[in-house]
Description:
single chain
Amino acid sequence: GLLNTAAAGLAFLDLPFSGPNATPEQVRAFVDLLAARPGRVVAFCKSGMRSSLLWGAASIASGRSLEDVLGAAIRAGQNLDPAGEIMVALADPPTDEDGAEEPSLRAGRA
């Protein structure tokens, strides 16, 4: 269980979403995890697409270019090109005049 995970020096983060419907909050949580846990991170989903999308959006949010993310994904066996605009939107969600994220992205719809 989770106690064994912590005892092994691992962190567990559950960020469930379906399709490309991640939220900016999930991307931020993944960015925070990557910043706090230097080294390798294992992200899992059935096909690898959701994990890759989350990684791509987090990478863009951390300053990596879309082109660099797409190239790295291809080298790893995932074509994220169709999700490029979604990743950019998740990495830098639009805000209203008060600085709050737009409701459509909070709900995970891009």
